Amino acid sequence: MSVNPMAYETQFFGFTPQTCMLRVYLAFQDYLFEVMVVVENVILKKLNALPNCKISPVQIRRSTEKFLLFLKEHFDKLFSKMEEVLLQLVLDIPSNVLLPEDKVHEEYSYSKEEFQALQEEIRELQQQCRAEASAGQALQAELEEQKVVQAELEKILQWFDELENISREHGTSNFRESFAFLTDNSRKLQTVLKDVEVKSKRMKKHHPLL
């Protein structure tokens, strides 16, 4: 059998030409064996019909096997020539023929150096895509943080609006004055609390049972 890989033919046919020839060879060989069995049975029937036949079935089997070996040797020689013709003239794709799916290679042919340059460009583009994706994720995270900060600012503005509404309800139209008023009252309350704490400590010293 041929050892040529014939990869392009395999791409076109969907099977290796050598595999095809092997199956044909095995089919012919099986058919030859079946024919010899039929011939042997016919000979045995003819001999059994003859009176005083001295040829035994064992002798017929030996003769059949010799004849089969003779046929097989000649068949192998003929098949070898047939295989060579079929592989060269029938199952072979000429070197100047391109399959339809490979026409693109003819239109866009590249040298080894150009192909390597394209691969390098692809790698660079992949790196740029990964960097842009990472930057996009960082921007998305920053936007989420800005949303949180904006929500807090809106809460603070709402709080100031509520303070201003409260100030108006109590007759203070100027928010700054109201805020100063609240701050001053808060300081006064803190002073009162401190005085209460001091007096409480003094009372505990003079009256331990309290």
Describe the structure.
With 210 residues, the chain is mainly alpha-helical. Among the domains are: 91 residues, no CATH class; 43 residues. The protein is 80% helix and 0% strand. It has six helices and no strands. Helix 2 runs antiparallel to helix 3. The radius of gyration is 52 Å and the shape is elongated. The model has no long low-confidence stretch (mean pLDDT 79).
**Computed structural class:** mainly alpha
Major pleated sheet: none
Given the C-alpha coordinates, what overall shape results?
elongated
How many beta strands in the DSSP annotation? 0
Low-confidence stretches: none
Give a nutshell description of this structure.
The protein is mainly α and 210 residues long. The chain has helices at residues 7-13, 17-49, 57-90, 103-107, 112-169, 175-206. Helix 2 runs antiparallel to helix 3.
